[in-house]
Amino acid sequence: MDTIICYRNNEEWQAEEAYARKYFACTGNRTTIKPGQLVIPRMSFLPFANEFESDLKCIGATLINSYNQHRYIADLGNWYHDLKEFTPQTWDKLHELPDNKRFVLKGETNSRKFHWKNKMFAADKRAAIAVHSELTSDSLICYQKIYIREYIELEKLCDSFQGLQISKEYRFFVYKSKIISAGFYWSNYYQDLLDMGYKLDPSEVPTEFLNKIIDKIQHTEVAEPPNFYVIDVAKTAENSWIVIELNDACMSGLSMNDPEVLYSNLKKELENA
User: Fold this and answer.
1) What gap in Å lies between CA 169 and CA 191, rounded to an integer?
2) Which of the listed CATH numbers 3.40.50, 3.40.1000, 3.30.470, 3.30.70 matches domain 65-87+153-273?
3) Is residue 19 within 8 Å of 7, Cβ to Cβ?
4) How far is CA 79 from CA 85, 199, 227, in A?
5) Which residues contact 119 (CB under 8 A, 6 or more apart)?
């Protein structure tokens, strides 16, 4: 199938555009998309995802992830049921929270991690209620369902704003059942951490662990399995690995993924599909 990237011309796209154009036709205008094309909406699917899909159906083109596939990976409440054993315990009702745990709060897709102390971390149930109140009036989060997750201590590398800890965390881009690219999640801290002597290699994440996650996603009973997505995993202070997040790869930043590797491998997988 002929594939085209429909991009939003922002800074992220400009940084990867040259690599993407080596392997795919690209357009910034959906009206130029042709019948029969497979469309990768790079940073352009939101906020009008339903309308985007409807427009493409009228044209006779297809999204790499349908709207329903996008919602599965974009909403924590959907994929959580498949990955319960691999990710922190999660609640969506404040009255169900236990009294003896710490928590992090986030929207179904986004978080305010750089406002860690007053819009994400909660030392106990009372604090979680206060953070929840802050998020309900936040312009980014207020339109999303808010989830409360158990706080799991991660392997700390350094500190960031408002006490946010930078941890050993990696982002994996996946097409269907195959990892096509991997990189350290915290790109803004990457060089500093290397200079401090840290080894930041995504190959340290056990392949068996990742394969279990991918298998669960591809056999979900909640929705049609997604085609193109990212898995963010982190190392805990107790030396195990957990899933932090899933997201639609079309709407996910590269972190330290090499765009040459990402786009060349995606091209190969689509050609072999």
Assistant:
1) 15
2) 3.30.470
3) no
4) 12, 30, 14
5) 105, 112, 131, 134, 135, 138, 141
What residues contact residue 238 under an 8 Å CB cut-off, 6+ apart? 153
Looking at residue 162, its pLDDT comes to 78
pLDDT score recorded for residue 161 = 76
Which is it for strands 228-235 and 241-248: parallel, antiparallel or unpaired? antiparallel
DSSP state of 8: -
DSSP, collapsed to helix, strand or coil, labels residue 212 as helix
pTM of the model: 0.95
**Cβ partners under 8 Å of residue 21, min gap 6:** none
Give how far Cα 224 sits from Cα of 48, 69, 79, 252, Å.
21, 6, 12, 20
Residues of the chain with pLDDT under 70: none
Helical ranges in the chain per DSSP H: 11-23, 49-59, 67-74, 76-79, 116-119, 125-136, 190-195, 207-218, 259-272
Per DSSP, the three-state class of 198 is coil
